[in-house]
Design goal:
45% of the residues lie in helices and 15% in strands. The chain is α/β, with parallel strands linked by helices. Strands 3-2-1-4-5-6-7 form a seven-stranded parallel sheet, sandwiched between helices. β1, α1 (26-37) and β2 (41-46) form a beta-alpha-beta unit. The radius of gyration is 18 Å and the shape is globular. It binds NADP nicotinamide-adenine-dinucleotide phosphate.
Length: 260
């Protein structure tokens, strides 16, 4: 067979515009830089402008254009402003990485209404309304990729995380509903579900409870906690043309935790 007739996957994101929520630090920071490295222009969002400006500078150093948009995903008017500003600056949106998220670990008997609302409003409601606002633009374009950053906690119960697991389980099913509804518009909607990854969010958990690291490692057959770099490869794949027949999928990056 002649190799000229062989199709090779396309991972290049040149000319594409990607929005990353929660891009100021942790996983979102690494995802934003990786998307820029693969050629995308970026819109970076979170509540902390100083962190966004830092990642914005680094994206510009990679030769890409960047829009810094301070916003809270729990505030729907701020989501609409961010999407309008993106369209005004770039004219189109190719990729949404719904990454902003929080966790406030508590025993189920101690969960307050305020903590429940903060977690679910950020991780599930905010994520949905970002997808809805961007989805409307993508429906007009008849093209787009939405990647929801879920968690293995959306597939298995983890103690001390009633609200968090509930929110991420919701993200997994929401991913499938949007994939079905928007397939007709050539919009692919997938989720990535990592195990514990070394970020500012998880650092506090490992410091707070001394035996927590052993509990986590005891559940990961591959025997190590994840790094943001373990996640970004999947983001690039799902954001690129290489994954064009993939939609409604939840990709676990969990070192085997959920294989038990
Ligand atoms: N780290 C892990 O072990 C792990 C494992 C599985 C899944 N995840 C998921 O991965 C995602 C990123 O987690 P991470 O560990 O990188 O967390 P992180 O280090 O705490 O970073 C979270 C980012 O989200 C932003 N954010 C939080 N609330 C927001 C809001 N209301 N509006 C806009 N931005 C907001 C934060 O910025 P501001 O606070 O400045 O707004 C920050 O930039 C989350 O969805 C998390 O659930 C994490």
């Amino acid at each position: 067979m002649d190799s000229k007739n062989v199709g090779f996957p396309e991972f290049d994101l040149s000319g594409k515009v990607a929005i990353v929520t929660g891009a100021g630090r942790g996983m979102g920071y690494h995802i934003a830089l990786a998307l820029a490295k693969y050629g995308a222009d970026l819109v970076v969002c979170s509540r902390t402008t100083s962190e966004l400006e830092r990642v914005g500078d680094e994206i510009e150093k990679l030769g890409r254009r960047v829009l810094v948009q301070q916003m809270d995903v729990r505030k729907i008017p701020e989501i609409h402003t961010m999407v309008n500003e993106t369209v005004r600056a770039f004219g189109h949106i190719d990729i949404l990485i719904n990454n902003a998220g929080i966790n406030l670990p508590q025993w189920a008997v101690d969960v307050t209404e305020e903590a429940w609302d903060t977690i679910v409003d950020t991780n599930l409601k905010g994520l949905f309304f970002c997808a809805q606002a961007v989805g409307k633009v993508m429906i007009e374009q008849k093209k787009g990729k939405i990647i929801n950053i879920s968690s293995q906690a959306g597939s298995v119960g983890i103690p001390y995380r009633a609200a968090y697991c509930s929110s991420k389980g919701g993200v997994n099913l929401l991913t499938k509903v949007l994939a079905i509804e928007w397939a007709t518009y050539n919009i692919k909607v997938n989720a990535i579900a990592p195990t514990f990854i070394e970020t500012p969010l998880s650092k506090a958990m490992f410091e707070e409870k001394k035996d927590f690291r052993e509990f986590v490692l005891g559940n990961i057959p591959l025997g190590r906690i994840g790094k943001p770099e373990d996640v970004v490869g999947a983001v690039i794949y799902l954001a690129s043309d290489a994954s064009d027949l993939v939609t409604g999928h939840v990709l676990l990056i969990d070192g085997g935790w959920t294989a038990h």
